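::Amino acid chain::
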Amino acid sequence: MLKFINTQMTALKLPYEFMEWTQPVKGAYIVGEYVDVPTLNEDGSEESSFILTVTTRGKWLELEQIKAKIKKHFPSVCGLRGNTDSGSIAVFFSDAFPVPTGEADLKRLQINLTIKEWKGVS
């Protein structure tokens, strides 16, 4: 899952890192993290929520443009599907919302993706 998301963020040419931003800040940047969702299915699938936190000291428009790019790349209905080292994956845009920062010039947007994985299926 992590490798798949990293590959997609690179393909979208978005500044992305997992868990913490370690590079010099040069505009908007994205930090990803995930939460496992309990599986109640018997089909061998696993589900996760992947959280992309987009931060900038620029304009809100920059965050909205990044959201639009991600929303288009990971459609809500059929998702973006692919293979992983251990099976198959589908990633869906779920929702997004602004996150207060307490600083007037710092803007943050949370984008949630839903990820479904199937082990051994490709």
About this structure: The radius of gyration is 15 Å.
